[in-house]
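Service request form, structural biology core

Requester: graduate student, group of Dr. S.
Request type: structure prediction, single chain
Budget code: on file
Notes: please return the result as structure tokens.

Sequence provided:
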Amino acid sequence: MLSWRRKIEGKIMTGKGFPYAVTEESLRKWMRMPAKMKLEWLEEINEFIWGYAPEKNKKIMARFRKGDI
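Core staff response, request fulfilled:
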């Protein structure tokens, strides 16, 4: 079991998901991007993933989002 912890939306997540790091410059670049561009990017990624992912993968992603895995 993973020993790392992270706090998301007020709850501690232990051993689920995956850890990742983002550079400060990447965060600043994202913050400077207009909200409309962020939403368009999010919609495009969502359409791509859900349009091409097999049903089995969609179920796994849903469980991942819920914190079941």
